[in-house]
């Protein structure tokens, strides 16, 4: 039985030919995302804004759906519930109430009176805005260090030109994800930060696969125009790219629609990141190499006459 190929073997799409259009679209997307983050702002969750954490234990396996329905009707703002440890243990997060400590205590009493009498309140903690600010700074630091580490890795594995292209594409993916959350005003919390870091890892893996083929072809075809060589490299890896992205998206859509409210924002960030990361690997990371003074390898291991017919017909797109 032949293996499944979503993309025909003789595909010869001139991706690089449309690089200026892709650059213009990406620039508009990034600038619009920055404007949304600065103008509208992110809807920070309790992890960043501060609030109250209540740990409870129920006598029977907790009915999270019913508890969430009861507490959401209390007009206390954002409330999230999460099982942890066992199916009887539930962590309740309530957003910080307007006012001083008395208002926070009042919110806890309202929750206590709403839940069944057999619910045991095991721990109550208040997360102040100072802790939230520290988490914001830690999240920014984590993303920044991830990008720096990726740049160093690509630099050592390939050349600095590849590192520049990879970081520009990654920054494009992360900024556009932040812009999406600013526009739709979904909660931005620690789970979303984890999604952003996961997007960076997925996107760079996709980019490295294409870059590997580019490097191989640079050493193999010494006289072929770079734009044509890049087109061939992207088309060679297109089947793998689309297959990986599609299978990942199938799992993420299942999580988004059936994983519950706790995982919905994480899955949404990942879905957007997979789509825009695949796009940037093809239309941003590779075409940018045309403007970085990329050099060919020193060892000649082949020539253009070894190309299949369909590859020889790919135009350089310049």
From TrEMBL:
InterPro entries: SecD/SecF_arch_bac, SecD/SecF_bac, SecD/SecF_CS, SecD_SecF_C, SecD_SecF_C_bact, SecF_bac. The chain crosses the membrane at residues 20-46, 135-156, 163-184, 190-211, 246-264, 270-291. Keywords: Cell membrane, Membrane, Protein transport, Translocation, Transmembrane, Transmembrane helix, Transport. The keyword Chloroplast does not apply. One of its GO terms (biological process) is protein transport by the Sec complex. It is a multi-pass membrane protein. One of its GO terms (molecular function) is protein-transporting ATPase activity. Its main location: membrane. Residues 110-292 form the Protein export membrane protein SecD/SecF C-terminal domain. One of its GO terms (cellular component) is plasma membrane. It is found in: Cell membrane. HAMAP family: SecF_B (MF_01464_B). Belongs to the SecD/SecF family. SecF subfamily. Forms a complex with SecD. Part of the essential Sec protein translocation apparatus which comprises SecA, SecYEG and auxiliary proteins SecDF-YajC and YidC. Part of the Sec protein translocase complex. Interacts with the SecYEG preprotein conducting channel. SecDF uses the proton motive force (PMF) to complete protein translocation after the ATP-dependent function of SecA. NCBIfam families: 2A0604s01, transloc_SecF. This is Protein-export membrane protein SecF. It comes from Thalassobaculum litoreum DSM 18839. The lineage of its organism: Bacteria, Pseudomonadati, Pseudomonadota, Alphaproteobacteria, Rhodospirillales.
């Amino acid at each position: 039985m032949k293996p499944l190929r979503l993309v025909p073997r003789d595909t010869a799409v001139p991706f690089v030919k449309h690089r200026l259009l892709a650059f213009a679209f990406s620039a508009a997307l990034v600038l619009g995302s920055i404007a949304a983050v600065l103008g509208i702002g992110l809807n920070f969750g309790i992890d960043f804004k501060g609030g109250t954490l209540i740990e409870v234990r129920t006598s029977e396996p907790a009915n999270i759906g019913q508890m969430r329905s009861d507490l959401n009707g209390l007009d206390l703002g954002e409330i999230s519930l999460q099982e942890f440890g066992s199916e009887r243990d539930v962590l309740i997060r309530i957003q910080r109430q307007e006012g001083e400590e008395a208002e926070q205590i009042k919110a806890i009493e309202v929750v206590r009176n709403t839940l069944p009498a057999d619910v045991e309140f095991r721990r109550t903690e208040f997360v102040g805005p100072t802790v939230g600010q520290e988490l914001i700074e830690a999240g920014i630091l984590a993303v920044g260090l991830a990008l720096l580490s990726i740049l160093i890795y690509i630099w050592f594995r390939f050349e600095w030109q590849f590192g520049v292209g990879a970081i520009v594409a990654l920054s494009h993916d992360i900024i556009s994800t932040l812009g999406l959350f600013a526009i739709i005003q979904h909660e931005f919390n620690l789970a979303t930060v984890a999604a952003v870091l996961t997007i960076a890892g997925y996107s760079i893996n996709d980019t490295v696969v294409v870059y590997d083929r580019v490097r191989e072809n640079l050493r193999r075809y010494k006289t072929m125009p770079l734009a044509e060589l890049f087109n061939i490299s992207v088309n060679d890896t297109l089947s793998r790219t689309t297959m990986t992205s599609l299978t990942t998206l199938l799992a993420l859509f299942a999580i988004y629609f059936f994983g519950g409210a706790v995982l919905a924002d994480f899955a949404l960030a990942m879905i957007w990141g997979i789509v825009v990361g695949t796009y940037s690997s093809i239309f941003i990371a590779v075409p940018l190499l045309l403007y970085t003074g990329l050099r060919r390898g020193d060892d000649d291991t082949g020539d253009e006459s070894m190309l299949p017919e369909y590859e020889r017909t790919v135009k350089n797109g310049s």
